[in-house]
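Page 37, top half.
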Amino acid sequence: GGRPVPASRWDLISADAGVVRGPEQWHERLGRAAGRGGPEAEETAALAAFADELFVRATPPRGSWQVFGTWALDLLDHYLLPGTGPDRWPDHEEANARHIRAVISALSELDRVSGGADLSSFRHALRTELGRAADTGDFDGGGVGDGVLVAPYAAARGLQFHTVVVIGLADALV
């Protein structure tokens, strides 16, 4: 957390390193590329460290609604914390982020009425509550459903899009 990542630059570095899937491949191939030295070695090492940390942080815990809520809020705060100064988010986006935090916090309280939770239940409840908030206009300036979907092709089946950009066509990955 703390600073925006150079996403476009890191995309080129990961492509040059031949990374296409899985935490092990990210670690091994970026580590090898950084170890070769050269002008991109420092950036490659920074990307490798970021990816390693992301894979660890994004691994879901086991436990209660409270555990899942804490995990989700930690990810939100660490990777999407609104900026300050010139990097500050527009007011409506900050309000939406507060609303998302409130939804996650409310789900954390379900331990009072539920014997436990698993990741599937937590994700379903979060998706349902955020969808309800979007449907009732609780989000300002758009909301859930407006934005970018980054997912495998199968996850997009049956969905409607205004614009579609398929990554990997130039790299013969499709």
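Page 37, bottom half:
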Amino acid sequence: ESLAGGATRPIPAAFLLLRGGEVPEAAASSLVLLTAMLMTLHEGGQMGHDVGSFQSMWTLVKGVPIHAMVSGNLLTLGADVLVLVHGLGLSHRYMMPVAEELARDHNVYVPDLPGFGDSGHPPRTLTIPELADGLAAWMRAAGLSRVALLGNSQGCQVIANLAVRHPRLVRCAV
């Protein structure tokens, strides 16, 4: 969209779709994230909602919106960062009781792996190495490195793969 003085302002992808226009590839990823958030609202969820001292966070990773709960009382810089990884058929919700306890003394992130919970679903089911790569991509997008990871069930396999494939992201694993 052209503005006075030749400046431009991007047209929201959702508006282009409503008008029957084509959506540029760069806007398509934003539209995927918007769609996921709207679907969450439609299904009774909330964007940016608080659960105890946690807040919902969305990060677009390789075109897939990844949802995570983040401790709302992020401590001072340098505080330990913990990433809790759920198991097969679960989501962040399973890890929240432990996360709430750990958040008393740590910065805690509880992502939904791609294809699970409130995160977007890739075109096919991901393998353990692909889930590890997805977790690594999310960690990088969220600005996390050298963190402690705590896993449950299949989450432990994902963390072990992450440690082998992306060792610079892992400080320790439980």
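Margin note: The mean pLDDT is 78.
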